[in-house]
Amino acid sequence: MHTNSLYSSWAHQAVAALLPSPPFYFSICETPKDRQVLHKFELPLIAGASIKRQQEFCSGRFCAHQVLDRMGYQDIPLLADPYGAPVWPGSITGSISHSGGIAVAAAVQKKTFAH
């Protein structure tokens, strides 16, 4: 896990350069999160998962909720489609990634890319 504040600053700057806000919103999380950060309807999504998987899932969802909060969507559960991908609110498209103790979520309003 990267807990170095220099690394954290670099990661934040790198993502900000790729995804300027607005229209993009993102969050980076380096601290493993637990089930307490989940919406009650997200809890069944990790039932029976290993501790490592639960921490990754919770950290990713924590980042995603921070992003949604900044976009004006509070207390919205991010459920999963049949393949396990997050189901974002209808007007939002986004992504969650986690690896090596770091989680990132990014999202944008779909209308930003409408033809």
Tell me the strand percentage band: 15-25%
The secondary-structure element order is HEHEEEE
- Domain tally: 1
Q: What top-tier CATH class fits best? A: Alpha Beta
Neighbour order of strands in the largest sheet: 1-5-4
Q: CATH fold name, please?
A: Ribosomal Protein L22, Chain A
Instruction: Tell me about the largest β-sheet.
Output: 3 strands, antiparallel
Description:
- By secondary structure, the protein is of the alpha+beta class.
- It has a single domain (5-113), classed as 4'-phosphopantetheinyl transferase domain (Ribosomal Protein L22, Chain A), CATH 3.90.470.20.
- It has two helices and five strands.
- The strands form two sheets. A three-stranded antiparallel beta sheet has the order 1-5-4, sandwiched between helices. The protein has a two-stranded antiparallel sheet with strand order 2-3.
- The chain starts with a helix and ends in a 6-residue tail after the last strand.
- The model has no long low-confidence stretch (mean pLDDT 85).
